[in-house]
Amino acid sequence: MMKFHLPMIFAAMLFAAPVVHAQVNIAEPWVRATVPEQKVTGAFMKITSPTDAKLVDVRTARAGRTEIHEMAMVGDTMKMRQIPNLPLPAGATVELKPGGFHVMLFELTAQAKEGDIVPLTLVIEIGGKQETMEVNAVVRPLSKPAH
Ligand SMILES: [Cu+2]
To answer: What's the predicted TM-score (pTM) here?
Structure first.
């Protein structure tokens, strides 16, 4: 029976392989450290997509919900506000950073302590399809640079 089944399984795997692979690059993902009782923080990273794409959602077990935010002038003050998705133009590196685009994590399940790893699942729409990417963001204070 095995002799019959193995080639069939390999054939099935070949057909199941995704035709298009995103090859979106995520660099330096990090989450801002929190103080005890703080329930909200931000996640940041650099995203480069080879083709036009959009970041449509970010999921993590460490937060009750997330939103994608931008900073925008409202009247004469800079405020953050939710955007439905973050466009990722082909070949451009889109930087999520404090004071700019960021992912907001609400209802944190625990304090984000320096050195913790926060697994994030990024949902990226590319070529009309949604793909997910797993990244491990490291927790660090705002004052500490990545390198
Ligand atoms: Cu925000």
So the answer is: 0.81
